[in-house]
Amino acid sequence: MMSSLELRFLGPIRDKLLRGTSGRVLEIGGGTGANLRYYGDRVGELILCEPDGSMRKILAARAETVLGGRCRIEPWSAEAIDLPDASCDAIVSTLVLCSVGDPAAVFAEIRRVLVPGGKLLYMEHVCPWTHPRHRRALRVIEPFWKLVAGNCHLTRATGQAMEVAGFTNVRREVAHFPRPANWVGPVIWGEAEWHPDHIASKAEA
Ligand SMILES: C[S@@+](CC[C@H](N)C(=O)[O-])C[C@H]1O[C@@H](n2cnc3c(N)ncnc32)[C@H](O)[C@@H]1O
User: Fold this and answer.
1) Which of these, 83, 103, 82, 84, lies nearest to 93 by C-alpha position?
2) How far is the CA of 95 from the centre of ligand 1 (A)?
3) How large a percentage of the chain has pLDDT more than 90?
4) From the CA of 30, how far away is ligand 1's center (Å)?
5) CA–CA separation, 37 vs 26, rounded Å?
6) DSSP per residue, 164-186
């Protein structure tokens, strides 16, 4: 059964984010499969990677039920994706970049496996940049929170990191968790594109 947070807040965002996805798609940190029901018929092949063994078991069972032969489950971490260069049309990351050990390495892997013009579809909670007091409180809580919440960081500036990593045409919506979960900070979601030429022209400038 879906939690009320999933049903009322995250589910509608997942739906808008994923319903138009097409081609060969890689989802990093698939968890227990919260996104599965939102992929449409235009997805040709869905690869889900999930390094946590117990989550992966649940994910595999759900994926088989929801998507059958169109999907494949892998144990990779997002810092080491075992796929060839330029082999995916889109990469999906929802509530994952807060938990990975090395976000820069993950962005590098995403760039490597995306085709030129490929899309990163994201939904991530981020540091509340407009509220310094809130930010300070999250900094205090973060070391303890990471221990109980699977290395989830509360103060990552994932939106900025995405642009620093060279993603372009970034489309971004901001949403706020309903109370009492709103203390976590805002959620950003949308898509960004990867164009190798963009980096090359920045380097030349
Ligand atoms: C909060 S859960 C989100 C699960 C799912 N994506 C969702 O939207 O509900 C964070 C997920 O990130 C995964 N994760 C953590 N570090 C990771 C890494 N380095 N590479 C890939 N997945 C990772 C965890 O195992 C977990 O499944």
Assistant:
1) 103
2) 7
3) 86
4) 6
5) 15
6) HTT-EEEEEEEE-PPTTGGGG--
Are the beta carbons of 48 and 70 closer than 8 angstroms?
Answer: no
CB distance 150 to ligand 1 below 6 Å: yes
Phi, psi torsion values for 142, nearest 5 degrees: -50, -45
Q: Residue 157 — left, alpha, or beta (φ > 0 → left; ψ -120 to 50 → alpha)?
A: beta
| Total residue count of the chain as it appears in this document | 205
Give the tens place of pLDDT for each residue, 152-191: 999 999 999 999 999 999 999 999 999 999 999 999 999 9
What is 4-204's CATH number? Answer: 3.40.50.150
Mean pLDDT (the chain) is 94
Model confidence at 19, in pLDDT bands (50, 70, 90)?
very high
Global confidence as pTM:
0.95
31 Cα: distance to centroid of ligand 1 (angstroms): 5
Domain ranges of the chain: 4-204
Output the six-digit token pair for 197.
């030429």
User: What is the identity of the amino acid at 35?
Assistant: N
pLDDT digits (tens, 9 = 90+) for 49-103: 999 999 999 999 999 998 887 899 999 999 999 999 999 999 999 999 999 999 9
- What does the DSSP 8-state code read for residue 63? H
Pocket test residue of 56, 99, 109 for ligand 1, highest count of atoms within 8 A of CB: 99
Residues with Cβ < 8 Å from 5, sequence gap 6 or more? 177, 178, 181
| Residue with the two structure tokens 């009320």 | 4
